[in-house]
Amino acid sequence: KPYLRLxxxxxxxxxxxxxxxxxxxxxxxxxxxxxxxxxxGKSTLLRCIAGLTDLDGGxxxxxxxxxVNLPPRSREIGMVFQSYALFPNLSVSENIEYGMKMRGVSxxxxxxxxxxxxxxxxxxxKRDAYPQQLSGGQQQRVALARSLAVxxxxxxxxxxxxxxxxxxxxSLRSEIREIQKKFNxxxxxxxxxxxxxxxxxxxxxxxxxxxxxxxxxxEELYAxx
Length: 225
Ligand code: ADP
Ligand code: ADP
What we know:
Blueprint: E1 4-13, E2 16-26, E3 31-35, H1 42-50, E4 57-62, E5 65-66, E6 77-80, H2 92-102, H3 107-120, H4 136-149, E7 154-158, H5 166-183, E8 186-191, H6 194-200, E9 203-208, E10 211-216, H7 218-222
Parallel strand pairs: 3-8, 3-9, 6-7, 7-8
Antiparallel strand pairs: 1-2, 1-4, 4-5, 9-10
Helix pairs in contact: 2-3, 2-4, 3-4
Bound molecules: adenosine-5'-diphosphate (ADP) (2 copies).
GO molecular function: ATP binding
Keywords: ATP-binding, Nucleotide-binding, Transport
Protein name: ABC transporter ATP-binding protein
């Protein structure tokens, strides 16, 4: 039984259909990448799942419940974007604790959780720093910690490594995979980088022009002549 099921997802902007009948089942704890050229609809699909964009058709079942009519916050979905999108006027720990604070988590519990996450991303000594004092890779680790802080059911990563230089990209790639496995969090990772998709994921979905045109494990896709 899939943990996250996308069923007949359709989205258009004006007269242009950007997503055509997208169907996808994801198991609990699985990391699936969406790989495809710029403009094929990857970001739009993630935004639909997160509730940041309305669908024109289809269903999104999370843990057997249709979440299509829920507002973003009630969907329990975390998202990390290409641009780090941290709050510039909040410190690292305040950024990580923000979502918990909004949900009424006690100060003590917030501190404990953010300390654990800071240790996990190896940025404990930066807890009082501000985002602009961090490198791009560090900011992206904080963004990841911030999205995990509220214990989402699903994590959506929209080209989280694209703005980083190649060396940092590789180390952060394995760090993301480690954290994803440790939390056993169901994850969709969007990228246009084939190597990234093949090294990172349990399953790769190739997207083109608003549809998933092929999918398989990295091994299966490598075997395609
Ligand atoms: P990708 O993430 O694969 O690069 P996007 O989902 O960002 O693709 O975009 C898919 C298509 O939808 C593109 O042609 C893009 O220009 C278009 N698009 C995305 N968002 C909007 C929007 N808010 N209004 C109109 N067109 C959009
Ligand atoms: P990405 O880097 O994910 O492909 P884009 O740079 O295409 O994202 O889009 C950034 C923002 O602009 C998104 O909010 C997207 O919905 C919006 N957008 C993209 N294409 C269009 C478009 N043709 N018309 C209006 N908004 C768009």
